[in-house]
Write a structure and sequence with these properties.
single chain, 230 residues, mainly alpha, Rna Polymerase Sigma Factor, Chain: A, Arc Repressor Mutant, subunit A, 2 domains, 11 helices, globular
């Protein structure tokens, strides 16, 4: 096993350099990568599974797989895209098991939601006097994202919240780019009903990734790595 990355400067090391260190057995480098991408990866898993606890479990398993297989990362895409693909595969596998046990309620056929023009008039001030209002908007947006049909929710989270490109989202979810565009457009149309201009302001705070959750996931994965392969 290689010596761990020195603490000084390791947080600023580029992803590809960290990936090479991880491939050589550097656990400290992998911890840096997890902390760097934890929120985005958790959001990816949660968007697919729709449940916090299930998403955490899926993320831990995906991280363990990534740790074991990162030597196969060739740099053809960003490491964050590669990681998201691993996470999405794990989450989708769990979702398929859920589907076998429960029927999925489809979006009502024949119901079309017109695209509502996004405007900026009356945008919310970020001052403390609007904190409560913004918190309520965030809760409303989270609830509506959770209510999106399963095919639309991951696309929306990856494109709007995590700001992956169309091609990156298509690669992560293994669907055509045209499908990404159509599902994203449909998801935005559904969400904008009743939200109008407030929706964009709330994106950044959706599904906040608290330090406690980040630490819990990292600690659990590192503990399992330390135990060695099962």
């Amino acid at each position: 096993m290689t010596k761990p990355l020195p603490q000084a400067g390791s947080a600023d090391a580029p992803d590809d350099a960290l990936a090479r260190r991880v491939a050589k057995g550097d656990q400290a480098a992998f911890e840096v990568l997890m902390r760097r991408h934890n929120r985005a990866m958790f959001r990816t898993a949660r968007a697919i599974l729709g449940d916090d606890a299930e998403a955490e479990d899926a993320l831990q398993e995906a991280y363990l797989l990534a740790y074991r297989t990162i030597g196969g990362f060739r740099g053809d895409s960003k490491l964050s895209t590669w990681l998201a693909r691993v996470v999405a595969n794990e989450a989708l596998g769990r979702l398929r098991k859920q589907v076998r046990r429960a029927a999925i309620v489809p979006l009502q056929a024949g119901v079309e939601v017109d695209e509502i023009n996004s405007t900026t008039e009356g945008s919310m001030d970020k001052g403390p006097e609007n904190a409560a209002r913004r918190a309520e908007m965030r809760k409303l947006l989270e609830k509506r994202i959770d209510a999106l049909p399963g095919a639309y929710r991951p696309v929306f989270m990856l494109r709007a919240v995590e700001e992956y490109s169309v091609d990156e989202t298509a690669a992560i979810l293994e669907i055509p780019a045209a499908t990404v565009r159509s599902r994203f457009h449909r998801a935005r149309s559904l969400l904008r009903e009743g939200l109008a201009s407030e929706v964009d302001l709330a994106y950044e705070e959706v599904f906040g990734f608290a330090g406690e959750r980040c630490n819990r996931i990292v600690a659990a994965v590192m503990q399992r790595i330390a135990k060695g392969p099962r």
